[in-house]
Amino acid sequence: MSPFTCSKCGKDWPENYCPECARTINPSSSHEPDGAIIRGTFSTCAPKFHINPVRYLWHKSETRPLLQAWFILLLTTAACIYLRWWIVGAVFFLLALPLGWLLWWIYRRTDEIFYNALLTAGMVVSQRPTEFICVADMGTGCGKNACAIKRIAIRRLPVHSSEIGTEFPCVSGFHEGSSREFWADFNPQPLSFGTGNSKLIDDRKEKIGEDAFKRLRQIYREGNFPKQADKMTWVDDVSLQQIPPPALPKPPVLIRR
What is the pTM of this model? Predict the structure, then answer.
């Protein structure tokens, strides 16, 4: 197999990844869709599975209170019907209808993302609170590639251990910005929010490939990731950063068993 030559440092490597520059050497030129084309864009590495709606709505911090309120309204409606309080029961039922429609709409939109969006690599970097970092290629497919890393806080990480250094697959949706060549932001979510099937999660992790997780480990070791949750840092092209990230203390080297 021919070695990969990094255009940044000029060195040859056996894999399509430069550990010194922490970058993919030759981004894939294949632009074949791996999922449906949605709003004019597509993923080249999609999860392709349907989520469990109740599981997702429960593990997602923003939707859990809505799901709890909907269950309470349904239980109250059932209790009123049992007690023959027809009018009161009808009122609670009418309140439950729009909330139920909202939850269904959130589920349908999220299911579309989990089936068709981009698989990305994630790693736990904080236990209390639980926070992880995720790296993604921000290129829109117009020819240029640049990766960014984002830090996300979550309530808990189902299926996986919450120990620092735990690696797991995510799915990421992207947001448009002023540039046609790069996405402005992305929103990674652990696959385990949508399924508890460990075999499926492991299969999708293998689909992402080892290069992405190697890159994530390199970024972690160098401390080149945001210090606060919900912040994003550009990795490949410093000129894309409007505000340079603050200097971070170097994290401890990961011990892999």
Answer: 0.76
